[in-house]
Specification:
Helix content: 25-40%
Strand order of the largest sheet: 2-1-3-4-9-5-6-7-8
Order of helices and strands: HHHHHHHEHHEEEEEHEEEH
Radius of gyration: 28 Å
CATH topology of the largest domain: Umud Fragment, subunit A
Structural class: alpha+beta
Largest sheet: 9 strands, mixed
Number of domains: 3
Number of helices: 11
Length: 274
């Protein structure tokens, strides 16, 4: 549990003295000092009071080491984007930052996907991933790049690198948009999403390739969601035929089919005469 270190960290981050916080929470300064140093354990009423004072959920106050979060993550918490307050199962993200305090983009290759399924919350695992930055992406948002496998999202080619923006709140998921989703059962998938969480607690996932059927996942099975930003590939997508060329191609195919049927008709007549 990180309650003691968290309340000390939050107090100092806000420039408050122990006297300030103790007065606001109507407790003795010595009591607050005992909580911060871990020599006294707060009751439920005190826990609720601290949660309300800092506007951070009890789960986050107890389970997340806030001193290990990046500045952008702390900013999200302070603006009210607390995963536990929002009621989703999306956790505070394990991440890495550059020496100038800029969020890195971690690269999750196909080979690393299996480890990511279990190590996504492990700062050491995330820290061992290849890191890079793209100057045209926002410094105030968190991105991660995953390698795509298979043909379910054609025309996006197999083995493309797909970059997503971290979604802190699943209520902001928009139907018809593409997302990279980490689930407890299927691992990492890249799909177009229909958001029916408000109706039945589920997301319906669609492939761009019509050969693949859509399927549902319950939001409780979701571990991370990343909004599609762009993809990088060394393959050109299949060309789109101009309308006139397409019509000529169809007409040619019809002519070929007619000739085949005509030829088969002659063969049948010849066989009858014999």
């Amino acid at each position: 549990m990180y309650f003691a270190s968290n309340i000390k960290f939050l107090r100092r981050r806000r420039g408050r003295t122990q006297d300030d916080v103790a007065a606001a929470l109507q407790m003795k300064r010595s009591t607050l000092s005992g909580y911060e140093n871990g020599v006294a354990q707060p009751g439920i009423e005190a826990l609720v009071a601290f949660s309300g004072y800092f506007n951070i959920s009890l789960d986050t106050m107890l389970k997340i080491n806030l001193t290990h979060l990046s500045e952008s993550q702390l900013g999200e918490l302070e603006r009210g984007y607390d995963a536990y307050i929002k009621g989703s199962n999306l956790r505070v993200l394990a991440t890495t930052v550059s020496p100038d305090n800029r969020e890195n983009i971690e690269l999750v290759s196909e080979k690393a996907k299996a480890g990511y399924t279990t190590g996504y919350a492990d700062p050491e695992f995330i820290g061992d991933l290849p890191l890079f930055n793209l100057p045209f992406l926002s410094r105030n948002r968190k991105y991660r790049t995953f390698q795509l496998k298979g043909d379910s999202m054609l025309p996006i080619p197999d083995r493309s690198w797909v970059t997503g923006e971290y979604m802190q709140d699943w209520q902001e998921i928009k139907s018809g948009k593409a997302y990279i989703i980490l689930t407890s059962n299927d691992g990492i998938v890249f799909k177009v999403v229909e958001n029916t969480v408000g109706q039945n607690g589920k997301l319906i996932l669609y492939s761009l390739n019509p050969l693949y059927e859509p399927y549902e996942v319950h939001i409780n099975d979701v571990r991370e969601i990343w909004k599609f930003v762009h993809y990088i590939s060394d393959e050109l997508p299949d060309p789109v035929l101009p309308e006139k060329q397409l019509l000529r191609t169809v007409a040619s195919m019809k002519q070929d089919l007619y000739q085949i049927k005509k030829s088969m008709g002659r063969d049948i007549e010849d066989a009858t005469e014999l």
